[in-house]
């Protein structure tokens, strides 16, 4: 049931741009589960399709004095979102550079919005990549939810291009999406009534 009868604008971000990445079918699973709830209006962002260049704005993002069309378009999409799920791999004990670059293009657009992670990797399940992102997302005011899906060797669960979740992973995702929606419906009106400084 919707907390206030309002549909949450959820952005799902595919954090890897590598050809053949398993993050895309995992993110498609997340999108399908989010759609089933009826709680979300979804903006599905594949960073490979978004194709942002390495950050190329002359002014600090904090001032929102964007000069380039790709930045302005990205800003509009992120500003419109009320919550996020980052589907992210772990690269060498850290985050995907494409995801970090997409985050760094902007600043206030992320402020006080809930964020969930679906991470994947080897034995660490991508958790070290998430840990490396925590100071970044915290500095931008993103509010991390408590339940996060962590996939150990998640690529082994992709069959014919489709991710096949285990029961426990599906259960955690349900909790994660519920918490994202609840936080979004609390934080969205607060943002509207609060000076972001």
Concise account of the structure shown:
The chain has 197 residues and is an alpha/beta fold.
Radius of gyration: 16 Å
CATH architecture: 3-Layer(aba) Sandwich
What portion of residues belong to β-strands?
15-25%
Dominant shape = globular
Oligomer: single chain
Q: What's the count of strands?
A: 8
Structural features, described:
The chain is an alpha/beta fold and 197 residues long. It has a single domain (8-192), classed as Flavodoxin domain (Rossmann fold). It is built from 6 helices and 8 strands. The strands form 2 sheets. Strands 1, 2, 3, 4, 5 and 6 form a 6-stranded parallel beta sheet that branches. Strands 7-8 form a two-stranded antiparallel sheet. Strand 1, helix 1 and strand 2 form a beta-alpha-beta unit. The termini are far apart. The mean pLDDT is 94.
């Amino acid at each position: 049931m919707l907390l206030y009868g309002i549909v949450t604008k959820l952005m799902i971000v595919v954090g890897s741009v590598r050809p053949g990445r398993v993050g895309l079918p995992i993110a498609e699973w997340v999108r399908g589960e989010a759609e089933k709830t009826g709680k979300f209006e979804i903006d599905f962002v594949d960073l490979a399709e978004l194709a942002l260049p390495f950050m190329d704005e002359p002014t600090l993002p904090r001032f929102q004095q964007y000069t380039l069309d790709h930045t302005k378009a990205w800003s509009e999409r992120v500003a419109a979102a009320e919550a996020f799920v980052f589907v992210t791999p772990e690269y060498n004990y850290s985050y995907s550079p494409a995801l970090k670059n997409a985050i760094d293009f902007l600043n206030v657009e992320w402020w006080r919005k809930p964020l969930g992670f679906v991470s994947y990797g080897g034995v660490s399940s991508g958790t070290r990549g998430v840990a490396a992102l925590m100071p970044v997302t915290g500095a931008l005011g993103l509010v991390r939810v408590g339940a996060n899906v962590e996939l150990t060797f998640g690529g082994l669960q992709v069959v014919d291009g489709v991710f096949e979740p285990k029961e426990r992973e599906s259960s955690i995702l349900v909790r994660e999406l519920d918490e994202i929606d609840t936080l979004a419906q609390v934080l969205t009106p607060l943002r509207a009534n609060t000076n972001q400084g």
